[in-house]
Amino acid sequence: MQRRLMRRQSAPCCCSYSTLKAWLPILSWLPKYNLKWLKMDVLAGLTVGLTTVPQALAYAEVAGLPVQFGLYSAFMGGFIYTFLGTSKDVTLGPTAIMSLLCSSVVGGQPHRAVLLSLLCGLIQAVMALLRLGFLLDFISFPVIKGFTCAAAVTIGFGQVKNILGIQGVPQQFFLEVYYTFHKIPEARIGDVVLGLICLALLVTLMFMKSSLTSDSDSTCSMYARKVVWAVATMRNAAVVIAASLIAFSWEVYGNHVFTITGKTTRGLPPFRPPPTSDTTANGTVVSFGEIVKDFGGGLAVIPFMGLLESIAIAKAFASQNDYRIDANQELLAIGVTNIMGSFVSAYPVTGSFGRTAVNSQTGVCTPAGGVVTSVIVLLSLAFLMPAFYYIPKASLAAVIICAVAPMVDYRVVAKMWRIRKLDLLPFFVTFLMSFWAVQYGIVGGIAVSGALLLYSMARPQIEVTDHGVLVMELSSGLSFPATEYLSHIIHTRALQVSPPRSVVLDCSHVSVIDYTVISELRDLLRQFKLREVHLIFAGLQPSILKVLLAADLEGFRHNHSVDEALQMESRNLLDD
To answer: For 217, which of 48, 154, 272, 556 is 20 to 30 Å away at the CA?
Structure first.
């Protein structure tokens, strides 16, 4: 009796601890943490940190913000994700796509970018709490690919002006293309030479890393391969540091050969609530409601794309490294990161594929590696900001171009052409509209995908065969958009011919039915009765049969299989 009472008392405790572990995944791995995991996490965190710093500076340029905002956005994710994340590999921070979306919505205004981070985080956190992660399933693969390809082209070409060292180029893509070519005569030789050298070095190091396989030439020692791998992995930091030293050596002698980043705000960002209003250059105060109105559709697109990008990365690496993630918990981690990030002047962030790949390849064991990465970013903010003054913009442009180039996946077009040509429609709609406005491209692609999905529901495949009695096989569920089409097929093939013919409706694949369909079936049964022929249902699933019986349809007949229905109808014909 006493044991039973103790079990009853301990059950709520176990249940509450399990619930707590579901909301705080750190509790599932922290009790097992050991020295080996610590070594691997520190190594991975340092490696990712040296990749994060130059990329964060570069992506702030894409977002149209001062470079320090890239670093402000790069450290909060490591701390939050350690507590709330379910993937050991994912690193949260600024990315090329989120930076482009942010630029298109806030137009390079830091206060609005910070407020956007808060609002995006709130939307994402609410979605997680309401378990609305399934909404991401409605964004199809062709839409995602169309957007990422267009984003890569937009971001990559947007950095050509920095490689050339030209000023006064508009942000709008088509104007940007025109003015970039128009101003080529104004290009600065120093920026062009340095930018091309940085591009060449980054591409060379990238290919060197990809060529380092386990079965490579035995004449190359293991130590040499590790050195090459380390340098290639930290290529962004190495190239930016080298370019900065070159720029510094020219600047100290008064030779302004390169376009450099210039003055940046020193030190850590203050911890304060994000601004809920803004002030224009002429002193006009813009209210919170007006700012939100200006955000427009971007306030829906950015949270969704952030979630989509991060969860896709988490699923890919979970599959690769044989563990599982919780999609709704990932939504919560990203949402809380963006909310807390807004208090340290961050703009919206998400999972980074490139840095997550580095994290995984370096052998990270737990999300704690993100803490080390965040510390590296904080140390850079605290002590290295004066050195960032000399970073050439051409070197950051080279980093961005090399980061986004792999996103242009031209082979996917051929794959979609072979598998399903209709998928090219949402792909190209998204791709082309994204050059006009990024958020319109995504919305347009989703609309086209939705229209195709609705069309397939309204026009289900119906295979008609003649066995003396017409057999119509339905390939999917019956919902209200399909009723008119089904009725049209039955009328033209069975009721409007002379003499009218009986029909066996093979419903073995039908798992969904609604009230509109029931109403149409009632009318069809009446039409068959008037013409003294039969409409017979075959292969009904128990749930569908229960609904049809409850509807009390006059003249309703059903059989377990099509063969049974055909045999019964053949006997009826012989009797007649």
So the answer is: 48
